[in-house]
Amino acid sequence: MENIHLAAEDDDDLYSGYNDYNPTFDSEELDNDVGFQQAVRTSHGRRPPLIKHASTCLLDYCVKEGAARPMTAVRAAGYSSTFTRGSAFDPLGQSRGPAPPLEGKIEDTPDEKIKILEKKVNDLIEESCLAHAHMDLQLALEKAKDAGRKERSLVRQKEQTGTADHINLDLTYSVLFNLANQYANNDMNTEALNTYQVIVKNKMFNNAGRLKVNMANIYFKQKNYLQAIKFYRMALDQISSAHTKMRIRIMQNVGVAFIRMGQYSDAIISFEHIMSESPNVKTGFNLILCYYAIGDRKMMKKSFQKLICVPLGIDEEDKYISTNDDPHGSLVIEAIRNDQLHQMERDRKGLAEKYIMTSAKLIAPAIESTFAAGFDWCVDMVKGSQYVELANDLEINKAITYLRQKDFKQAVETLKAFEKKDSRVKSTAATNLSFLYFLEKDYDQADRYADLAMNVDRYNPAALVNKGNTVFVKQDYEKAAEFYKEALRNDCSCTEALYNLGLAQKRLGRLEEALDCFLKLHAILRNSAQVMYQLANLYELLEDSHQATEWLMQLISVSPTDPRVLAKLGELYDNEGDKSQAFQYYYESFRYFPSNIDVIEWLGAYYIDTQFCEKAIQYFERATLIQPTQVMWQLMVASCYRRSGNYQKALETYKDIHRKFPENVECLRFLVRLCTDMGLKEVQDYATKLKKVEKMKEIREQRVKSGRESSGRSRRDGSVSSDSGQSGHGTSAKGERLSAKLKTLPGSNEPYEASAQRDVDASYVDPLGPQMERPKTTAKKHMAEDEFADEELGDDLLPE
């Protein structure tokens, strides 16, 4: 025991004595061990009591204090047969807390600074590209410029540290290329060309010659086509023949540039080479355009045949149709039916059909003596190609061409030929026939073909709209609204059905429902003048003049020169009592359309109300030119001269009126009064004429009265024939109108001065008196009469 090493508390090395030799465990010396031999010899073999040594006291102390026993060479770390109170099993020492932070790298070294700067340049290039992807072009340019500045700083640092031989050329190329692209995206073409030039001239950059294509594109954008062609050809010289697609696209750009320059023969050379090497529909279409421009009929036909033979490289539609009852296969087909690949195939096929249809419509009138023969040739060619279904569409376009030539008979005959064909074409033809007959106001035939189109395809919204239109003109608005609603259920984007539904609801007096329709339509057609007018009109009918004015103001922003809208705004402001605003819009309306009698009348009355009679004269003179047979405008001109104090001019005007209308009583009365005041000798002649005219009017009035009485007796007795009854009715009506005029005649002794309340004649109410108000129903009546002209029905003709 004296050789056992005890761990003292103040001992620094806990593991000292690990390799010391302990004689207690030496079995060879057991024979000389007195205690061992005594224990063996005794029978009981009881061990003597233990004496606590210093090590035992230390162990008890550690257990009491909850501390871990010091690790020794005898017992392994963390494993003990004695459980230590207050401590957990933690062989890895995780309870000691986190490890201290790692010692940071020293960034003051030149290599570390260069690496950090390179990373910043790459990050700026990436940020510039991301900004361009989000269409923030200005930010993309700023990031590209910042990357360029940091890249130049990086090169200077490498030169200073003597590592210029290790310059990263790829990083320099990326910075310059991105900067040139961002310049081009921001329409800074000169800066972009200069940057591209820096890259192209540097021989250390591999394949930099391809960037001449980008430079050529910029010249093309600047309409410098000669320079663009030069750079395209330089790029072709530096691109190997292995890159076939790129060379084909560059040659296509060369051909388009030649077309822009009007050099169609040179463009044909490029396009013919492409069609022989790698044909595509866009090049074939451009080739047809060039031959059409030079008028080569034979080559137009050959180019059209090449166009319809271009392979599209897409699969047949049959693979998207399930042919068995396999549920797994059906799920797969349903999944790929609307995937992106199938959508791309549909787009490619649709583009090809568009080019073929446009080419056929273009060359049909040019390749034969008549456009009908040309269309027939195109149809025959298409029927023998992979685009068989386009033949019927060409026939439809043939009918539309007849319509443009106003040959309705041939158009109808062409469309009627489709009645015996498949359902889709029959429905299309019947829809167009219904539209044609509706335009010709043959509503029975329009209704018949609308029914035919609906029977073939009940889900055709155009057919339902045409059917609703035929019912609408018969004033069955309720039934028309049902057809429009059905069209909207089949196609919620059918704007014609929604517009016409609003009109039907308006005619039925359901103003709120009509307003809802036009508000929905306005959300679809934001700049439709007709929709805005209907909304303004509905708010006016709902007596919301403020909203009506707001919508008319929006309409003015879309159509600022519409005189009727301007006049309507003037009327609304006039009703609200805002004369200055009303005058502004009435004057603008007159400026754009100086022949509207209602506007002219309002402006003349406005100047008279404001005591500027001289300015009113020009408006009434214009009304005289528009309606020379209406005496009231000429009397207004004379009255304005009289009110302004120019009696001589007024006298001359009245004399001129008397020469044109010798039986006008008002003119004669004013002539008598003027001549009397001015002391002229003609007063006696005019007085005699006035008496004679008044006497004639009295006789006419008596005849009218007696004729009316006799006509009444004849109707009561039933003894008058139908012819005489009609004659009596006409005489009676004429007498009533004359009687109404005579009732408005002023007395013979009434003065004619400006202070008089009534100044003029028996044929109209003079608005010149200050106390008189201008009638407010004329403009409104005019709008009501022309309302149906604005409420055009949305008849549907197939787009070309």
UniProtKB/TrEMBL annotation:
GO terms for biological process: inner ear receptor cell stereocilium organization; intraciliary transport; kidney development; non-motile cilium assembly. Residues 698-718 have a biased composition (Basic and acidic residues). Residues 786-800 have a biased composition (Acidic residues). PROSITE patterns: TPR (PS50005). One of its GO terms (cellular component) is ciliary base. Residues 88-107, 698-800 are annotated as: Disordered. It comes from the Eukaryota. TPR repeats lie at residues 248-281, 495-528, 529-562, 563-596, 597-630. InterPro entries: TPR-like_helical_dom_sf, TPR_rpt. Keywords: TPR repeat. GO terms for molecular function: kinesin binding. Gene3D superfamilies: Tetratricopeptide repeat domain (1.25.40.10). PANTHER family: INTRAFLAGELLAR TRANSPORT PROTEIN 88 HOMOLOG. This is Intraflagellar transport 88 homolog.
